[in-house]
């Protein structure tokens, strides 16, 4: 019997898991990690940051995009891994919330890529293109 092959994006998934350890999520107890892979191999990660004013929570994906863009990134987004805390068998993989889909779309659209989103669950990693998560997206070109 051959060994199961590691996931092709195992390093990116591991980066998202590591990032989740930095989450500030005392209100939801739902730490999330996100890791962005760029076309030059760099990975930029983020975790959710909550607030005593609950509605002001920042999602992991948004924090990661903000970090990348503050570091000068304007496109080149190849893949995104998102991990959540529910890892009991049968739990659903975590998918980016609607706002994060829009935030990811801005960075992706700047470079004309359609990143692969890796939604990490306990049993499987669900892979979906951002364009499938956010069809008919409103983006930078919509303002032209
Ligand atoms: N959260 C994320 O970080 N990303 C998502 O895509 C979904 C939700 C966070 C927000 C909040 O801190 C916690 O998960 C529970 O909703």
Q: What would you note in describing this structure?
A:
This protein has 144 residues and is α+β, with helices and mostly antiparallel strands. The protein has one domain: Cytidine Deaminase, domain 2, CATH 3.40.140. Helices cover 28% and strands 19% of the residues. It is built from four helices and five strands. It has helices at residues 10-20, 60-70, 98-111, 130-133, and strands at 33-38, 43-47, 77-83, 116-120, 125-129. The protein has a five-stranded mixed β-sheet with strand order 2-1-3-4-5. The longest helix has 14 residues, at 98-111. The chain starts with 9 loop residues before the first helix and ends in an 11-residue tail after the last helix. The model has no long low-confidence stretch (mean pLDDT 96). Tetrahydrodeoxyuridine is lined by residues 25, 28, 30, 32, 48, 50, 57, 59-61, 96-97, 100. Residues 25, 28, 30, 32, 48, 50, 57, 59-61, 96-97, 100 line the site of tetrahydrodeoxyuridine.
- Please write the CATH class name: Alpha Beta
Number of helices: 4
CATH third-tier fold name: Cytidine Deaminase, domain 2
Bound molecules: tetrahydrodeoxyuridine
CATH homologous superfamily assignment = Cytidine Deaminase, domain 2
**Name given to the CATH architecture:** 3-Layer(aba) Sandwich
Q: Please mark out the parts with pLDDT under 50 across 5 or more consecutive residues, or reply none.
A: none
Number of strands: 5
The rough form would be described as globular
């Amino acid at each position: 019997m051959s060994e199961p092959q590691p996931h092709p994006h195992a390093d990116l998934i591991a980066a998202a898991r590591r990032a989740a350890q930095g989450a500030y999520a005392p209100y939801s107890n739902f730490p999330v990690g996100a890791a962005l892979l760029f076309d030059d191999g760099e990975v930029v990660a983020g975790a959710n940051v909550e607030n005593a004013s609950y509605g002001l929570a920042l999602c992991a994906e948004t924090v990661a995009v903000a970090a990348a863009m503050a570091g000068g990134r304007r496109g080149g987004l190849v893949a995104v891994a998102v991990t959540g805390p529910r890892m009991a068998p049968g739990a659903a993989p975590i998918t980016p919330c609607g706002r994060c889909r829009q935030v990811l779309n801005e960075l992706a659209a700047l470079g004309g890529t359609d990143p692969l989103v890796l939604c990490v669950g306990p049993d499987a990693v669900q892979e979906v293109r951002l364009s499938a998560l956010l069809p008919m997206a409103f983006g930078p070109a919509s303002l032209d």
